Amino acid sequence: MNYFAVITTCGSEDEALRIANHLLNEKLIACANWWKVNSAYWWEGNCERAEEYMVFMKTVKKNLKAVESAVVTMHSYENPEVIQIPISGGSEKYLDWVKESVK
């Protein structure tokens, strides 16, 4: 599969925008969507709850390592979520746009 969605969560909208804008400016992703979410997770033996911003990005396979590296480097979290989800299908016109929008 050539197309992927990459997901991360950030502690603030500013951080989400900073990461998304960097990846867009570097043409590593075609687009990013973000929204406020409520999260519950285990961290250092405690069940934590937090308001975060989920960032949902679309890209191509060849950019996955660079996207992950940039997110991890720019992120404020010690162990940021970076999940890659293969896109098995979709609008051919949209997927062509994704491919044409990245380097």
UniProtKB/TrEMBL annotation:
<dbReference type="GO" id="GO:0005507">
    <property type="term" value="F:copper ion binding"/>
</dbReference>
<dbReference type="InterPro" id="IPR004323">
    <property type="entry name" value="Ion_tolerance_CutA"/>
</dbReference>
<dbReference type="InterPro" id="IPR015867">
    <property type="entry name" value="N-reg_PII/ATP_PRibTrfase_C"/>
</dbReference>
<protein>
    <submittedName>
        <fullName>Divalent-cation tolerance protein CutA</fullName>
    </submittedName>
</protein>
<dbReference type="InterPro" id="IPR011322">
    <property type="entry name" value="N-reg_PII-like_a/b"/>
</dbReference>
<dbReference type="GO" id="GO:0010038">
    <property type="term" value="P:response to metal ion"/>
</dbReference>
<dbReference type="Pfam" id="PF03091">
    <property type="entry name" value="CutA1"/>
</dbReference>
<comment type="similarity">
    <text>Belongs to the CutA family.</text>
</comment>
